[in-house]
């Protein structure tokens, strides 16, 4: 054994240090290695360990040599292992058995400073821990403990911070032991082993554990095996990375790679790098030698890591961001700063909110970022650390981010720097000597706009606590400095308090407040309280984190003022994985707080510590308050490595009742999650994390016998953001413990979360899978409890059916035994009008019941869907019913997810299509239903039903239901719904109407039908405009306009106003006044005419309303009959108006009497359908609504000239008389139009009297009308619907064709009204 001296000289001379250019001069130090002494220990050395001033050497002859670094043994004899007693624990100290065999020696050992002893692995596979009983290190003073069950140990690694000893085993697993404080025995903490669930082919393929190394910050251990492969584990056994599966183990073509074999490895500074010597031995593969002619050479590899900031700066655990730090960059999950939202700033908060410049996105609150920001996209916000700072201060040791996620501070070797995510700029010390003079020791934290850090001042040799303001220059002149007694190891900020843990095992609490000293703003720090912990803490290095929290075992404290931010109630201390809580002692006399200043007031002492949990890696808590979500915000969240997470949940009495004395006020609930937690979103019931993802590049390289490139062997790794819901685990744990009331309170507080339905579904699914697939019978099944719990929520029916459809069929019986019969659930869905969910239940019924039952339920659903106009669902149901009939039930229909727009959406498919029968079907857009197809031969998905096997009973059954629905719609006068129904389901309306002409398609009550159509199609009832009788038209002053208007068909209503003197003026003016408002609005919103016309129409109408409507209304109510004298005041008003004014009034009146353009198109379409089917009474009703005498004339012409059913004529005649009577009493606006068509009515009554019953009836199409009839000139004068055609030439043929063209044009171009029905104003 050789001992060497290592000297080094720094080439950069010491006096250069102060000058600003010393960086250029600074280079790597020169090293000089010099031999000091050679010792011959006469046996191969198995292991070397440094113990303070001594060197411990284990040799293969079973001896332990203790050698001073100077090379002297100081007369101490080597210790023979056979003389060291071993026992199960230290209590049976001297009666331990000795290692009974002669050739025993230590294979591997490691010194643990915090346990003061050695973890050892013997050559026979036994493991143990050797500790000196007293300070003397001699054979008589050594004692060993060992676990009984480990006999295949291979290597050992020790974690000093957590006092853990990890022993690698031949089986490939790692057993991690700790020492019991009271007995000194070795206790198994946990195991690191790959499960068959994650790696199905892993069994016996790893070989023995070869090497293990804990990272410098003691937060992870890396393990490698004999046959190759790397894995990374957290302290308490959560697996982070493993290279034995996925892209690490397989090429993109699916062939297996050789695992990476590692001969030696070591962590770099701060754990950012892993240095690896890889070697490819030939020990285990004959196959490899065939494949590889070239032996792979050992090589040095460097793996880079990024780590969570919690590993080194645990004060970050009360924040919701995930911050990862690398050696030269930071990864942040709060997205772009500009996207930050702040939905929670409304909750109460006791922090003093400083007057600060408003950032473009902050709402001024310091609470929490929005959910969308924290979850956001999957990418990280990467911040490159300033190269100027890194040059002299690499590597980064600590980092911290403020509450709003806008500013980051980093600490390297010396000094610190900070960065704003808003301005994208770094701030560094202006004076470099100030930076190089401070070493940050205990981490750093943000408090509002200030950075609080604990550091060592090199010049003054003094421990200090410093506070720097973010907005001022980075200089000690602007810092507030407080001297500290001992070195600070940990620092954390809670509300307006700073808590510090020092190397003398004391905890100190400071208050921090903002101060303004003239122009400079600083923060003042004052000591509040000191607590000595030396009785409880064996070594200060063992403390992982210390935090102040508002958590306490008594919820009564927070009950009084739950809305206020809660005060500092307790200290949480993580001591080597044991979570210790010290609460304030409230047993003594209580001081009234309101009289004294909070800084001078004496704080309550703390109670002795209580252990809350074991194996704790991280702790999360918040001081925010929200009355709605008290369970989540007042809980304490723990990450426990391989054991998953735990939550210490408060239990509240319902409605603030007095809690039961026997119920505890908090409960610790364990639960497993699939990601490693890095942050907890308290209100949103989410855990955020990061996961290693890989990308393969091997397709870029060709495989040959030569050495494979490393890119092929090792994939490119990226770190992805990830998140997981945990609420269902907590609800389930509460239900297991019979705390259903608490579970309900918690669930109701979270019911507004967007993924709450998913939470219920997950809970039901997990319990179902576990219980239904269990081998042994379950004594106390949870599923009925979960089912009962879910029924408390309106989403119960969806939750059950979604869960069932995502579960295999074999488990359905077990599920529905707990939640209820699917038939009953189906009926509940129908009662709740939730048809889409009912459709999902139908699929379950189809699988679980006989076809008759599912057909019966399908019929129910089909009828309901028809009634509600859910056309998409109707189409699915038709397919489903056919499948049941034809035995195709293996392919159940997919449940529709989207809902159809309701039937009031109207006939969307009539857009861009002409009604004209001459138009061919080819140029109709295929996506729309073609009217051509609807009339003649239905095709497409729904149409095939009639063309193919139409004699099938199943089709007949479906047709019967469709007919029944159509009949119901006609009986209820729901023509709009009928049109939608026919078009959406491809129903052959015309042929059905022909059959039903004398039955369902008869109009029983014309007046009711008329009223119903007005309502359905938003068509205004006609009104009599007062202005039409005013003097400008009578005295001939504006004769030209009058003539022009009278020529147009729309002037018909004004022709015979005087014939109508029977109606009292009161009614008339009232109907006008009440109608003009709404109808104008309807036209405005529903029509699609050009904007310039709209302006022209709008203004005169409002003028008229202002100037004459009120005046004329009062005049008319006073007068009893219509005399010219009553209108004189209106005349005077009107004579002042211009020509265009009165002209536009008529146009606006005409527009007010028509409904929306869409309704007009729909009505004309229906008119066309009824014409085709020969339902003339319906045509009359539609003609009346449209108030077009041409339609009425045309129908009456058909009735005269052809063999029309006398019954129908009689019906039309009585119907029209009924309408006439109704118009006289209730709706005077119809009278002018009825007067126009009076002559035709008289003819009709003559025909009906002499009509003989015909033998048969052929339906008459519009196309045949010209040959059959030639109307007289008087009729054509009324029926001509075009002001532009001379009356003599207006034959009926031109009328019909022209009418069709107009409707086509109206639908294609969609003007405000049909072009020919408007009077154009030049």
Structural summary, described in words:
By secondary structure, this protein is an alpha+beta fold. The protein is built from 40 helices and 50 strands. Strand 4 (54-59) and strand 5 form a beta hairpin. Helix 9 (727-736) crosses helix 11 (756-772) and helix 13 crosses helix 16 (835-848). It starts with a strand and ends in a 13-residue tail after the last helix. Residues 9-25, 281-295, 336-368, 557-564, 888-948, 1028-1138 and 1252-1322 have low confidence and may be disordered. Residues 1-11, 349-360 have a biased composition (Basic and acidic residues). This is Guanine nucleotide exchange factor subunit RIC1. Belongs to the RIC1 family.
Global outline: elongated
Please give the share of residues in helix.
25-40%
Note the main sheet. 6 strands, mixed
Radius of gyration: 45 Å
How many β strands by DSSP?
50
N-to-C span: 116 Å
Structural class: alpha+beta
Instruction: Please state how the strands of the largest beta sheet are arranged side by side.
Output: 8-7-12-11-10-9
Q: Kindly report the oligomeric state of this protein.
A: single chain
Mean pLDDT: 76
DSSP helix count? 40
| Percent of residues in β-strands | 15-25%
Pfam families: Beta-prop_RIC1_2nd, RIC1
Subcellular location: Cytoplasm, Cytosol; Membrane
GO biological process, one term: retrograde transport, endosome to Golgi
GO molecular function: guanyl-nucleotide exchange factor activity
Provide the descriptors you would attach to this structure in a database record.
single chain; 1322 residues; alpha+beta; 6-stranded mixed sheet; 4-stranded antiparallel sheet; disordered C terminus; guanyl-nucleotide exchange factor activity; membrane; RIC1_C; Guanine nucleotide exchange factor subunit RIC1
């Amino acid at each position: 054994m050789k001992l060497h001296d290592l000297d080094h000289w720094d080439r950069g001379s010491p006096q250069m240090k102060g000058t600003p250019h010393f960086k250029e001069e600074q280079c790597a130090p020169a090293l000089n290695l010099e031999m000091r002494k050679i010792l011959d220990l006469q046996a191969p050395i198995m292991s070397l360990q440094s113990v303070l001033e001594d060197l411990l050497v284990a040799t293969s002859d079973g001896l332990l040599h203790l050698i001073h670094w100077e090379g002297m043994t100081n007369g101490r004899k080597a210790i023979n292992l056979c003389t060291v007693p071993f026992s199960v624990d230290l209590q049976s100290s001297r009666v331990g058995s000795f290692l009974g065999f002669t050739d025993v020696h230590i294979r591997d050992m490691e010194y643990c400073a915090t346990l003061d002893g050695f973890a050892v692995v013997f050559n026979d596979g036994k493991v143990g821990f050797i500790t000196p009983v007293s300070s003397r290190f001699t054979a008589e003073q050594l004692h060993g403990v060992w676990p009984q069950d480990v006999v295949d140990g291979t290597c050992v690694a020790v974690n000093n911070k957590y006092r853990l000893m990890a022993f690698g085993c031949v089986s490939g697993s790692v057993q991690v032991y700790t020492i019991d404080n009271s007995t000194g025995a070795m206790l198994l903490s946990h195991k690191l082993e790959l499960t068959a669930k994650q790696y199905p082919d892993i069994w016996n393929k790893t070989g023995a554990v070869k090497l293990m190394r804990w990272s410098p910050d003691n937060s992870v251990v890396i393990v490698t095996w004999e046959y190759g492969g790397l894995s990374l584990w957290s302290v308490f056994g959560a697996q982070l990375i493993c290279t034995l599966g996925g892209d690490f183990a397989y090429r993109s073509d699916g062939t297996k790679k050789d695992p990476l074999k590692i001969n030696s490895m070591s962590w770099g500074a701060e754990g950012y790098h892993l240095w690896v010597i890889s070697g490819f031995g030939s020990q285990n593969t004959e196959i490899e030698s065939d494949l590889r002619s070239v032996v792979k050479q050992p090589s040095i590899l460097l793996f880079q890591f990024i780590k969570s900031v919690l590993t080194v700066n645990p004060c970050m655990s009360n924040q919701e961001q995930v911050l990862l730090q690398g050696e030269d960059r930071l990864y942040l999950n709060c997205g772009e700063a500009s996207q930050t939202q702040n939905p929670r700033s409304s909750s109460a908060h006791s922090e003093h909110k400083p007057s600060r410049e408003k950032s473009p996105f902050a709402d001024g609150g310091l609470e929490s970022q929005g959910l969308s920001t924290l979850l956001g996209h999957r990418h990280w916000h990467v911040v490159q650390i300033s190269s100027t700072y890194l040059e002299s201060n690499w590597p980064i040791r600590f980092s911290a981010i403020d509450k709003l996620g806008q500013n980051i501070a980093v600490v390297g070797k010396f000094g610190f720097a900070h960065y704003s995510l808003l301005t994208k700029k770094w701030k560094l010390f202006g004076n470099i000597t100030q930076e190089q003079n401070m070493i940050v020791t205990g981490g750093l934290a943000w408090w509002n706009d200030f950075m609080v850090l604990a550091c060592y001042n090199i010049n003054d040799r003094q421990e200090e606590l410093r506070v720097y303001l973010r907005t001022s220059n980075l200089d000690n002149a602007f810092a507030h400095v407080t001297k500290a007694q001992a070195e600070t190891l940990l620092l954390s900020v809670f509300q307006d308090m700073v808590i510090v843990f020092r190397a003398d095992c004391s905890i100190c609490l400071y208050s921090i407040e903002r101060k303004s000293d003239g122009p400079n703003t600083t923060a003042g720090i004052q000591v509040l309280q000191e607590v000595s912990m030396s009785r409880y803490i064996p070594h200060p290095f063992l403390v992982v984190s210390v935090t102040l929290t508002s958590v306490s075992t008594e919820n009564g404290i927070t009950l009084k003022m739950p809305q206020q931010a809660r005060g500092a109630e307790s200290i949480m201390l993580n001591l080597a994985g044991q979570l210790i809580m010290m609460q304030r002692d409230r047993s003594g006399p209580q001081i009234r707080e309101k009289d004294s200043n909070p800084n001078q007031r004496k704080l309550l002492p703390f109670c002795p510590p209580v252990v809350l949990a074991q194996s704790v890696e991280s702790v999360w808590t918040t001081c925010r308050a929200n009355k709605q979500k008290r369970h989540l915000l007042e809980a304490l969240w723990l990450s426990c490595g391989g054991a998953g997470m735990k939550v210490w949940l408060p239990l509240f009495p319902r409605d603030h009742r007095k809690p039961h004395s026997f119920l505890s006020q908090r409960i610790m609930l364990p639960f497993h999650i699939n990601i490693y937690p890095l942050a907890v979103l308290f209100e949103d019931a989410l855990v955020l994390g990061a996961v290693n993802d890989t990308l393969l590049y091997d397709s870029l390289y060709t495989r040959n016998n030569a050495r494979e490139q490393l890119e092929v062997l090792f994939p490119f790794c990226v770190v992805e953001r990830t998140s997981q819901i945990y609420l269902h685990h907590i609800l389930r744990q509460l239900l297991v413990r019979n705390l259903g009331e608490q579970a309900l309170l918690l669930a109701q507080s979270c019911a507004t979360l967007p993924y709450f339905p998913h939470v219920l579904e997950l809970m039901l699914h997990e319990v179902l899978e576990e219980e239904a697939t269990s081998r042994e019978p379950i004594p106390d099944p949870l599923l009925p409890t979960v089912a009962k719990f879910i029924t408390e929520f309106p989403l119960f029916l969806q939750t059950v059916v979604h869960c069932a459809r995502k579960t295999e069929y074999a488990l359905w019986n077990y599920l529905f035994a707990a939640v209820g019969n699917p038939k009953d659930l189906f009926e509940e869905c129908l009662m709740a009008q939730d048809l889409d969910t009912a459709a999902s239940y139908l699929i379950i019924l189809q699988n679980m019941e006989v076809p008759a039952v599912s057909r019966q339920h399908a019929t129910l659903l089909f009828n309901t869907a028809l009634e509600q106009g859910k056309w998409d669902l109707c189409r699915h149901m038709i397919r489903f019913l056919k499948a049941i009939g034809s035995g195709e039930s293996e392919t159940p229909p997919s449940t529709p997810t989207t809902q159809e727009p309701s039937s009031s959406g109207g006939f969307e498919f009539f857009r861009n299509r002409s009604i004209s029968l001459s138009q061919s079907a080819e140029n109709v857009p295929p996506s729309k239903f073609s009217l051509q197809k609807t009339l003649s031969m239905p095709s497409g998905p729904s149409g095939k039903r009639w063309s193919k096997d139409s004699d099938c009973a199943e089709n007949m059954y479906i047709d019967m239901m469709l007919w029944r629905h159509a009949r119901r719609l006609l009986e209820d006068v729901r023509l709009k719904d009928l049109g939608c129904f026919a078009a959406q389901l491809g129903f052959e309306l015309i042929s059905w109407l022909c059959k039903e002409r004398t039955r369902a398609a008869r109009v029983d009550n014309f007046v009711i039908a008329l009223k119903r159509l007005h309502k359905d199609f938003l068509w205004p009832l006609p009104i009599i405009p007062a202005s039409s009788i005013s003097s400008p038209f009578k005295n001939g002053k504006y004769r030209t306009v009058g003539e022009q208007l009278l020529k147009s068909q729309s002037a018909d209503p004004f022709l015979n106003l005087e014939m109508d003197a029977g109606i009292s003026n009161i009614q008339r003016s009232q109907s006008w006044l009440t109608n003009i408002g709404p109808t104008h609005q309807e036209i405005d919103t529903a029509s699609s005419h050009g904007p310039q016309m709209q302006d022209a129409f709008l203004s005169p109408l409002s003028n008229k309303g202002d100037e004459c409507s009120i005046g004329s209304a009062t005049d008319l109510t006073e007068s009893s009959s219509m005399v010219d004298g009553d209108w004189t005041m209106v005349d005077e008003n009107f004579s002042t108006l211009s020509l265009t004014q009165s002209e536009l009034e008529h146009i606006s009146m005409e527009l007010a009497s028509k409904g929306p353009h869409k309704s007009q198109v729909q009505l004309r379409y229906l008119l066309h359908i009824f014409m085709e089917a020969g339902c003339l009474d319906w045509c009359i009703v539609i003609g009346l609504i449209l108030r077009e005498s041409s339609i009425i004339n045309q129908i009456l012409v058909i009735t005269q000239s052809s063999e029309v059913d006398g019954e129908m004529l009689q019906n039309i005649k009585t119907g029209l008389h009924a309408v006439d009577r109704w118009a006289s009493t209730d709706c005077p606006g119809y009278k002018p139009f009825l007067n126009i068509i009076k002559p035709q009515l008289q003819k009709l009554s003559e025909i009906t009297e002499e009509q003989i019953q015909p033998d048969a009836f052929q339906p008459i199409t519009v196309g045949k009308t010209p040959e059959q009839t030639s109307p007289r000139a008087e009729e054509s004068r009324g029926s001509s619907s075009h002001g532009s055609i001379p009356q003599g030439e207006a034959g009926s043929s031109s009328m019909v064709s022209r009418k069709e063209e107009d409707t086509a044009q109206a639908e294609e171009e969609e003007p405000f009204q049909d072009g020919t029905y408007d009077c154009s104003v030049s």
